[in-house]
Amino acid sequence: MNDSGNRARYETRLARVLDHIYDHLDEPLDIERLADIACLSPYHWHRIYQAMYGETVATTVRRLRLHRAAGFLANSSIPIAEIAERSGYSSLQSFSRTFRATFGMPPARHRKQGTHSRFRPALSGDDQMTMREVVIRNVEPMDILSVDHVGPYMQIGKAFDALFGWLSKHNLLAAQMRMIAVYFDDPGVVEENALRSKAGVLLPHPIQASVTVSVPVSVTHVKGGEYAVLRHKGPYSDMRAAYEWLYGTWLVQSGREAADAPVFEEYLNSPKDTAPAELLTEICLPLV
Description:
GO terms for molecular function: DNA-binding transcription factor activity; sequence-specific DNA binding. Keywords: DNA-binding, Transcription, Transcription regulation. This is AraC family transcriptional regulator. It comes from Paraburkholderia panacisoli. It holds the Pfam family HTH_18. The protein is α+β, with helices and mostly antiparallel strands and about 290 residues long. It folds into two domains: about 5-110, Homeodomain-like (Arc Repressor Mutant, subunit A, Orthogonal Bundle), CATH 1.10.10.60; about 130-285, Multidrug-efflux Transporter 1 Regulator Bmrr, Chain A (Alpha-Beta Barrel). Helix content is about 40%, strand content about 20%. The chain contains nine helices and eight strands. Helix 1 packs across helix 2 (about 30-40), helix 1 (about 5-25) runs antiparallel to helix 8 (about 155-170) and helix 4 (about 55-75) runs antiparallel to helix 5. The longest helix has 21 residues, at about 5-25. About 35% of the residues are buried.
């Protein structure tokens, strides 16, 4: 078996581990159990995981749990103690300390003053959103390589991991590729577990004819034309508030109309090597 085939074999095994992690964040994640899922030696598999994904499995679990916890804080009234427990922490103090180290503020303050608070109706502060923060941009049509995701939008990282595994298998990972996600449904109307989206990348160059696009990857066309673009800086968990402001305030007051095409997001940096407060996302709303 050649080097590409060997790597693909390991990618397949570790993809099963990632699927299990995403689906069982509420449960204890035992290293021995994850080794069994990977069908690899419990003495060595986590080193293979770190070498291939650039972070330890413990870091992945902590990052995903804290990412979800930030979503609970921004978008729900779940008690912080319950969020801490669901995030795998035995004490509220330990959770608060870790959350603060990652997000720059304790959980209670994040719930009240996180990035999402900028999108609330203005009361008195100067930090509220303004119409000028949206720019109109002409976007060229794109054909992206994508993996389908059905379920909570906050878990689209699962589809991105599958896509990156496929790209790695075919030696298509490139520093200049653009990370794009297409969102088809309104989470205020469609049940969370039925939300449809696609995790995608736009490669800097066409793929070679020798590479066949195959399951789970497909080619998705992104419509070109005018888009209203809102650049969001902060955790992905705050995006719901950004969308509510973009549709409920900016679009209504702008005099423009949304086109019959899905919204997409472009991620300008990665949560694996960027602090949540520094994440940059462009929300792109198609216009008539």
